[in-house]
Amino acid sequence: MKRLTKLGLLLMVVAMVVSLSACSSDSSTASDEKSYVIATDTTFKPFEFENENGQQVGIDIDLLAAIAEDQGFAYELKVVGFDAALGEVSTGQSDGMIAGMSITDERKDVFDFSDPYFDSGVVMGISADNDTITSYADLAGQRVAVKNGTEGAAFADSIKDQYGFEVISFPDSANMYEDVKAGNSVAMFEDYPVVGDAIANGMPFKIVTDMEKGSSYGFAVKKGENAELLAMFNAGLANLKESGKYQEILDTYIQK
Q: Could you give the number of structural domains in the chain?
């Protein structure tokens, strides 16, 4: 009876050791999960915006979440605005950014970009009741609104001397829209899905030009750093395109 008791006790001790080892292994696995800080814009609908429940949503936000799930990494989203996001990544305060950011040669000097995840283009939008502006030539002597750091801002700057108009920059889309609605600016230049979404959601605008070809959007990290994060983004993006999830995300937000 005594020998059996000792044997039973020994078996219990072994079982406890195995159990603790397993728990330790599970804990190590959880703590080993890669985690990153990702900066984004505040308002660039339909790519990032706050919904009626106060949640940050949009193409970029959903795409990042799906890629993180596919690749098995965690992240903290920092909603700081476009200009601030650029600073966050370039100074190393954030590991990466996704904010409808156009891939340009100038930015490649500071950032490393993912494979393109969206091909955009610029249009000119005006107030719905404006019948005097039908082309770039009609902007002579007028004021035009843009948002800082966008493809629309770059395009406006590239043609302002040719057509003789003044460019006024705003930190976010909301202020740009209000400036045009109020008649302070006669037009705005912005990416076509952004203007299209605003119109579809009741903004009193209309598009009066064909789309100008723009740059593609990319996920960005500081140049020479976070290569693993960039590789995971590319791999996840490819998987999402293959599975159909990528198109599902686009269809959720882009008005047809």
A: 2
